[in-house]
Structure formats: structure tokens, C-alpha cells
UniProtKB/TrEMBL annotation:
Residues 22-198 form the Spore germination protein N-terminal domain. GO terms for biological process: spore germination. This is Spore germination protein XC. The gene is gerBC_2. It is found in: Membrane. It is a lipid-anchor.
């Protein structure tokens, strides 16, 4: 009886070993962190950024200043998959794709080839996820992927890999992942709004006045499912978009009076509502915005009502300016077509063409209401005169 029991235990142990025979030891893998894709002279150029997860964990837990090693590989070929396999030939270990955090695409790729080939390839990789942040850049993909955060923050926690960290403080442009982009492209008006980035060497410096290159989100790229890249809205051109997006969290608003600084407000909450109006054979839209704000800086003593009115006017002007700049690119940036599609399908079918409405400046009416919540009238005085 005892010998039979020993044999049974031996058999079970052997089966357990066979079950683990095809598993991969973590130390035998190279972990992807970022992917860049460019297109030039009829070839795809890919960049793969690798991350040492062991050092990352040590940096996060101990808060040490030890640098996390990140390496970027580069290859080019007639298609993305072939370029990746070129990199496999020189890789010292198996490359694991399940840790990929972000993808940077070049403007030239979107203009020449669009996203179809990239999405088709990506959907066939079983290790990849759809919760991967997407960004557009004009050039310098490799330079962007080699930048590192300031202080001793791990490179694995940089701005584009973990965009939610910095956006809690300033939500200039909301980030988007692959899943969200596919949904936007599938619904009328088939337009994706993707953060546009660049490498800035002017904002931060190191010792001896040495410039510190860092990634900066400077605007948005407008990508159409059928017409591919429509163009970019950079800087002030994109400012109005933040007030309409439902992903808004927090942003600043600077007010002026007679070309002089008046006050700086922090917008903490935004509520927007877009109402389609079909009348006399025409389609227009009413955009209502309600903003809760607080005063962070007061340059000139002003009554509460004046600040609220000027803030409402400033937000309205920014929203309208971004809308008009997008119309120049034939882009419905606030997805007005989708609002009509969901509320009045017969009217949408009647007035749309290829899932889009013909929009003009007169197509949008904007009403903005601003409430300063944490500054009583007797507190709106300058501390130092």
C-alpha cells in the first residue's frame, strides 16, 4: 500500500513538471515598454523600447535614484511585421509584448499609409492589449523614446507611459488608447483626436545650464478613418478642446483686462451638453458649458461678477476658435454629427454624407456659465498692494 502511494505521488509530481515545461522564466525575457512606427521611402521604420522590470520595481519601492536601463532597437522593412522580425534576429532574449505601454506614430505614416496596417498587425498579436496610449509626432521618434523623466522618477513612469499622473494636475489634452480610438473611428463622424507630442529642450535644464530634453504634449492630431491624417491643432489652436471633452479633470484659465493680467483661475469641473436643433431644413447645435472654478491668483482687484463674465467669455472664445480651426481641416472636432446620429437618426440620414454633416461657423451656438465657488466677495482682494 505504501509503495503504491509513493508511485502515485511520483506520477503526480512528474505531471506537474511537464505542465511547466513550456513556461518562460521572467529573467529570460526582454520587456517592451514603447513602440514607435515611422514611414519613409516606401518602408516602415520601427523603434522598440525595452525596460528592465526588475530595476523598475526596485526604483518604485525604494525611491532610489538608480537609473533604469532603457534601450531602443531600430529596424526597417516593407511592412511592420517584417521589421519586427528583423529586430528579433539581433535580440539577445525573447521579446515580450504584454508590457507595452505606449505607441508613437509619425505624421508621415498616417499621411502615407494610415492606421489600417498597424491595427491589423496589432490585433493578431495575442500578447498585446488595447489599453495602450497613442501619440502622434512630427519627427524625432527615437529622440522622444530616449528621453527620461526629471529627478529620480523611474523611466517606466514617464509622461507618455503613465499620462494619467500629470493630467490630474493639468488636462490640456486628454490621452487616448487604442480601444478608444477604434470606437471613435467606427462611429459617425469617424474622427479620432490623438495627442500630438514633441521633444522640448527649453522648459527644463540640468546642472551647468545643460538643456534637458523632455516630451511635451503640444496639441492634437485629427485622424479621419477614410481620409487619414487631416492635420494638427497646436498650442492655442487646441485650447478649446479641453472644455468640451468628457475626460476633462483640471486646467487653468488666464484672464486679462486692457491687455494686463487680471486673474488666474483653476477650472476644477466642467459639464457640457450638446443639443441638436433641426429647424426649417437646417441643422444647428447648442453647446452649453458650465464650469466650476477657483481663484488661484488675483492681479487686479475685481468684483466676482466681472471675473465670472470674463472667464465665460474666454472659454467661449477658445471653444469657438478651436472649432473654426478644425473646420479649416474639414474636421468635426466636437463630434456634432454623432450627437444628431444618436438623437435623431432620420434627420442625420437626410443631412449627412458619408457619416458627416456639412458644418459652418453658424452651425454652433455656444453658451458658457462660470461659477467661482471658493472665493467670497470679501476675499477677492489682493493680499499685497
Amino acid at each position: 500500500m505504501a509503495s503504491c502511494l509513493k508511485r502515485l505521488i511520483l506520477i503526480i509530481s512528474s505531471l506537474a513538471l511537464f505542465g511547466c515545461s513550456d513556461s518562460r522564466a521572467p529573467e529570460h525575457l526582454s520587456y517592451t515598454h514603447g513602440l514607435g512606427i515611422d514611414y519613409k521611402d516606401g518602408e516602415y521604420i520601427i523603434y522598440i523600447q525595452l525596460l528592465n522590470l526588475g530595476t523598475l520595481a526596485k526604483s518604485e519601492s525604494a525611491g532610489s535614484g538608480e537609473d533604469v536601463v532603457i534601450e531602443v532597437g531600430r529596424a526597417r522593412a516593407k511592412n511592420v511585421d517584417e521589421a519586427i522580425f528583423h529586430l528579433y534576429r539581433s535580440a539577445e532574449q525573447e521579446i515580450y509584448w504584454g508590457t507595452l505601454s505606449y505607441i508613437i506614430l509619425s505624421e508621415n505614416l498616417l499621411r502615407e499609409e494610415g492606421l489600417n496596417s498597424v491595427i491589423d498587425m496589432w490585433s493578431r498579436y495575442p500578447e498585446t492589449r488595447y489599453q495602450i496610449s497613442l501619440y502622434i509626432i512630427n519627427k524625432e521618434i527615437e529622440k522622444a523614446m530616449l528621453t527620461s523623466p526629471v529627478t529620480d522618477v523611474s523611466k517606466g513612469l514617464n509622461k507618455i507611459a503613465r499620462p494619467e499622473n500629470s493630467q490630474k494636475q493639468n488636462n490640456f489634452v486628454p490621452f487616448i488608447n487604442l480601444r478608444q480610438l477604434l470606437i471613435l473611428l467606427d462611429e459617425p463622424n469617424h474622427l479620432g483626436v490623438i495627442p500630438h507630442i514633441s521633444v522640448s529642450e527649453h522648459s527644463w535644464k540640468q546642472t551647468k545650464n545643460t538643456p534637458r530634453p523632455l516630451i511635451e504634449i503640444d496639441g492634437i492630431s485629427l485622424y479621419d478613418r477614410d481620409e487619414q491624417l487631416l492635420g494638427n491643432l497646436i498650442g492655442k489652436e487646441a485650447q478649446g478642446f479641453r472644455w468640451v471633452t468628457k475626460e476633462f479633470s483640471r486646467s487653468d484659465l488666464i484672464l486679462q483686462k486692457n491687455n494686463q493680467p487680471l486673474a488666474a483661475l483653476i477650472v476644477n469641473n466642467i459639464k457640457t451638453k450638446i443639443i441638436p436643433i433641426v429647424k426649417d431644413g437646417k441643422v444647428t447645435f447648442q453647446l452649453n458649458i458650465k464650469a466650476d472654478t477657483s481663484v488661484s491668483e488675483l492681479n487686479l482687484q475685481s468684483p466676482l461678477q466681472e471675473l465670472e463674465e470674463k472667464a465665460a467669455k474666454e472659454i467661449k472664445e477658445q471653444v469657438l476658435f478651436t472649432y473654426l480651426e478644425a473646420l479649416k481641416l474639414d474636421a468635426d472636432i466636437y463630434r456634432l454629427s454623432e450627437k444628431l446620429y444618436r438623437s435623431d437618426l432620420p434627420s442625420w440620414k437626410k443631412h449627412s454624407e458619408n457619416g458627416k454633416l456639412e458644418l459652418k461657423e453658424e452651425s454652433l451656438e455656444i453658451e458658457v456659465e462660470v461659477l467661482i465657488k471658493d472665493a467670497l466677495r470679501n476675499h477677492l482682494k489682493r493680499s499685497v498692494k
